[in-house]
Amino acid sequence: MLRPEPGAAATCRAAIELGLEPVAIPLFAIEPVSWVAPDPASFDGLLLTSGNALRHGGRELDALRGLPVFAVGEATAAEARNAGFVLSVIGSSGVDDLLAQVDPALRLLHLSGEQWREPAAPRQSITHLPTYRAAAISAPGISAIQGAVVAVHSPRAGARLAEVAARAGLDISATALAAISSEAARAAGAGWEQVLTAGEPNDGALLALAARLCNTSAQ
User: Fold this and answer.
1) Are 41 and 13 contained in the same domain?
2) Last residue in a domain, options 103, 134, 165
3) Which range marks the domain in which residue 64 is found?
4) What is the DSSP letter of 210?
5) For residue 103, which of 128, 70, 74 has the smallest C-alpha distance?
6) How far apart are CA 42 and CA 63, in angstroms?
7) Whole-angstrom Cα distance, residue 39 to residue 36?
8) 81 in Cβ contact with 53 (< 8 Å)
9) Do 80 and 141 fall within a single domain?
């Protein structure tokens, strides 16, 4: 698992429930960035694609608690509830699926990381405001991926994985990747034993794919 904490721990727990033996190798560490909450009257709701936006949002979040939340995934929705926000819509298959469910006239404030994926064809007006960053860990213990199945949760993680594996001179020809999206798969580059994409862009589908790859390798 390449996710930063606390996502890595959550994914590892879910992997164990599937009978897997996960190893967490975070490639990034999440840290807050300075931000100022805008006038909430300028927006109809908050778009949340990661619980990190709330975990690292700090006191500025207080000004926005009157806005309904449009959350991608149950984990993000749980963070919103814990932070005192009211949920409006929860999407289960990525931000594009979520936006397709809601009023196209909405003005949404997206609390995000410093890097985010633009929605494919949003009809809503979306303003992006970073509240955290994912800082690259300089020397992750990447050698454990050799001969394993690696779950890749984002294009940035895929690109970083390829970078550190090449820098370490690892033989990746026996390492399989389970990617959360086609973008994440492409970012990881070539040379892997195989690279497959999850049927849906969420943690559950990604782990199901990883489990299938692990069982195939075992056979």
Assistant:
1) no
2) 134
3) 30-134
4) H
5) 70
6) 12
7) 10
8) no
9) no
Per the structure, how many domains does the chain have? 2
185 in the same domain as 202: yes
* Same domain as 13, residue 84: no
Q: Which of 108, 134, 160 is the last residue of a domain?
A: 134
pLDDT digits (tens, 9 = 90+) for 5-47: 888 888 899 889 988 899 999 999 999 999 999 999 999 999 9
Per-residue pLDDT reduced to its tens digit, 65-110 = 999 999 998 889 999 999 999 999 998 778 999 999 999 999 999 9
Rounded CA separation 107/135 (Å): 30
| Contacting residues for 107 by C-beta, under 8 A, at least 6 apart | 42, 43, 44, 45, 124, 125, 127
Contacts of 155 (CB under 8 A, 6+ apart): 117, 181, 183, 184, 186, 187
Burial of 41 per CB tally in 10 Å (0-12, 13-18, 19+): exposed
* 3-class SS shares of the chain: helix, strand, coil, % to 5: 35, 20, 40
The CATH number of residue 162's host domain is: 3.40.50.10090
Cβ–Cβ under 8 Å, residues 19 and 209: no
Sheet holding 87-91, edge to edge: 28-32, 125-136, 107-113, 45-48, 69-72, 87-91
pTM of the complete model: 0.79
Q: Residue 64 to residues 68, 99, 122, 133, 143: CA-CA distances in angstroms? A: 9, 20, 22, 20, 43
